[in-house]
Design goal:
Layout (H helix, E strand, L loop, with lengths): L11 E4 L2 H24 L5 H25 L7 E4 L8 H11 L2 H7 L3 H14 L6 H15 L9 E3 L3 E2 L8 E9 L4 E11 L8 H11 L6 H11 L3 E15 L8 H11 L9 E17 L6 E6 L3 E8 L1 H10 L1 H4 L7 E2 L8
Parallel strand pairs: 10-11
Antiparallel strand pairs: 1-2, 3-5, 4-5, 5-6, 6-7, 7-8, 8-9, 8-10
Length: about 350
């Protein structure tokens, strides 16, 4: 593990109340669903890419919901939100969830039977006329968590998609996708690769392709560096187009990063010019395309590799109308450099 993978508690803010868990989960859930719709409506991805993008976002939302259930009444531990340049849960939270669910059976054997706990709840509420104690609520939440959350659906540091035939009109014969959670940035990324294959088909060789992607394309790096690493590692694979979606930062009341857009929103929330629910979501697309081939290696080990175009980098912002106005007033130099004017999404309204 490289130095870029080191994560410390100082990178995080802690959610320490039931209300904060509910509030945060509603914000992330709402913002990501608005992002999926916005990406589709504004043609930032092809129809097939949108399908894969939604699937990865669903895994992310499933994991955050699992965190909410796990930590809801836990007095000893609290969920941590990245405060550096993300606004999403700290990567360690996903790792804790995955590891914790590996011990599901051990924990279930120690928990009370559901019927016994139900009787205790009824006795407390109906006979004693008192609220259920927090430790009992934690026991109930733990039962829900360990009996309903599936480890296979937890968003991991690297999530591999399948190889499929590329949609008609694509620049290559095949495509695949993958997603990763960059542990230094604490942000999710989604990648697509369109490629040709020298051989019968790539499906018989898919495990080698998957392992190569996990080894050389599992973190944020320069797109031409990523493309060269994939190309060099897989001799029968000829990448033609690689596209990476960078989700975040999520600018909201829980973020405390140095991003100017986050500071603008936090300042306006502090002055009560906008509500606590206010948010904006940055979104970046980086792409590279092939531009010819070259040979590398010795006489007996020559390999044909791709020349890559200069990476195309485009930045976007999704935000409700009032926030778009605010950001234009306070940060016009940033907003005017976006690939397109900000995309308007719906306001989040939470009943107080």
């Amino acid at each position: 593990m490289s130095i870029n993978h080191i994560v410390t508690p100082l990178d995080s803010a802690i959610l320490n109340s039931k209300d904060q868990y509910v509030f945060y989960h509603k914000k992330v859930d709402f913002a990501l669903k608005e992002l999926i719709v916005g990406v589709q409506q504004n043609g930032l991805c092809t129809p097939q890419e949108v399908i894969f993008f939604k699937q990865y976002c669903d895994l992310l939302l499933y994991s955050i919901e699992a965190m909410r259930v796990k930590y809801m009444y836990d007095e000893e531990d609290n969920m941590k939100i990245d405060v550096t340049d993300s606004g999403f849960p700290n990567y360690l939270e996903f790792r804790y969830l995955f590891n914790d669910l590996s011990l599901r059976d051990n924990y279930l054997n120690k928990l009370k039977d559901v019927s016994v706990l139900q009787d205790e709840f009824l006795d407390q509420l109906l006979r004693k006329k008192q609220p259920v104690r927090r430790d009992k609520l934690f026991q109930a939440a733990s039962i829900v968590y360990y009996t309903s959350v599936e480890q296979q659906y937890i968003f991991n540091r690297f999530v591999q998609g399948k190889i499929i035939k590329a949609p008609e009109g694509s620049e290559a014969d095949y495509m695949t996708s993958w997603s990763f959670y960059d542990v230094s940035l604490n942000r999710p990324f989604v990648c697509f690769m369109y490629f040709d294959y020298d051989g019968k088909d790539p499906f018989t060789n898919k495990e080698e392709i998957y392992e190569a992607l996990k080894a050389v394309a599992d973190r944020k790096m320069n797109m031409d560096t990523m493309a060269y690493g994939i190309d060099r590692r897989l001799k029968n694979v000829y990448p033609k187009h690689i596209k990476r979606l960078d989700i975040g930062a999520f600018h909201n009341v829980f973020a405390k990063d140095d991003n100017d857009l986050t500071h603008t929103i936090l300042e306006a929330i502090g002055k009560k010019e906008i509500p606590l629910e206010a948010y904006a979501l940055s979104f970046k697309i980086h792409e590279v395309f092939t531009g010819g081939e070259f040979k590398e290696g010795g006489y007996f080990s020559k390999q044909t590799l791709q020349n890559w175009s200069t990476p195309i980098k485009e930045g976007y912002v999704f935000a409700p109308h009032r926030i778009i106005q605010l950001l234009y007033n306070k940060n016009p130099e940033i907003m005017n450099k976006l690939a397109k004017p900000p995309f308007q999404v719906a306001d989040l309204i939470i009943e107080k």
